[in-house]
Amino acid sequence: APWCGHCKSMIPAYDELAEAFSSVAGVVIAKVDADQYRDLGGRFGVSGFPTLKYFVAGSTDPSDYSGGRTAEDMLKFINEKSGFTGRIKRAPTAVTVLDDFNFNKVVMDETKDVLVEFYAPWCGHCKSLAPTYEKVAATYRNDADIVIANLDADKYRDVAQKYEVTGFPTIKYFPKDNKAGEDYSAGRGEADFVQFINERTGVKRVAGGALAEDAGRFDLLDALAKSFMQDEDLREDTMKRAQEFADQQDSKWASYYVKVMQKILDKGNDFPATELARLDRVLASGSVKDSMLDSFYTRKNILKMF
């Protein structure tokens, strides 16, 4: 019935089921508005909504379906009954999908900062948020200690109840040092999420996954880089100061400043511009693995200081 809340809740799963058998000629996934066509509903003993019945090919005498209401549950039932094989088709996602089995393993991991969206498949606001949330997950796909996750809170109600979820979508943040969780109350735009996560984790990302322009840089080394280019007579002293500072930092990027200075001495003042152009060409080729992108972005950030 169109007004039935349980029917509305089941729509996403039923649509997935229909898609799973869309290319299987021997299986039809159908529905009827039994509120409008009451005689038809009465004919098959429909007294509540939603009612699911299974018709074997060639028969008008159905059997009741009393299994689970997820797409997976219904798919398993039909595959077993019909002998056909339907497959649920889901687009790849950067969002970590949680359930009652993996929730604690992922969210309670004290080595990870975790953002969790508690959603319901039938929720309009959740559907509107989904493309943005996917982009946020993709932005942090290379950060092993940052997890962008979601949980079907309508399906896993015990988990949702534990965290006092009463509306959808509800978003909670579980940082490494607070696994009790806290409400996320900032904006719902991509930039809002990125700003929040950057501020809370110390990571310097921009929407899309690239690093911000100041990622990997040090104020003192930026100043020394400029001095190195402006005063060639003091280059040896400037390089020595840069090396001393780099030795005190727990970062390979501090040492990269010194490496660039040495390259300039060996290859001339055009080295930073030449190397930047080379990195841009490699990036534009699309051949760089995701795991290497941060290295390219950080080197570009530092080279621009010379």
Characterization of the model:
This protein has twelve helices and seven strands. It is an alpha/beta fold and 306 residues long. The strands form two sheets. A five-stranded mixed sheet has the order 3-5-4-6-7. Helix 1 packs across helix 3 (71-82) and helix 8 packs antiparallel against helix 9. The longest helix has 16 residues, at 5-20. It is elongated, with a radius of gyration of 28 Å. The chain starts with a helix and ends with a helix. 24% of the residues are buried.
- Please tell me how large the radius of gyration is: 28 Å
Q: Report the major sheet.
A: 5 strands, mixed
DSSP strand (E) fraction? 5-15%
Shape: elongated
- The residue fraction in helices comes out at 40-55%
Strand order, sheet with most strands:
3-5-4-6-7
Q: How many beta-strand elements?
A: 7
What assembly state would you assign to the polypeptide chains in this entry? single chain
Question: What is the mean predicted local confidence, pLDDT?
Answer: 95
The low-confidence runs, each spanning 5 or more residues with pLDDT under 50, are: none
Number of helical runs?
12
- Broad structural category: alpha/beta
N to C succession of SSEs: HHEEHEHEHEHEEHHHHHH
Distance between the termini: 68 Å
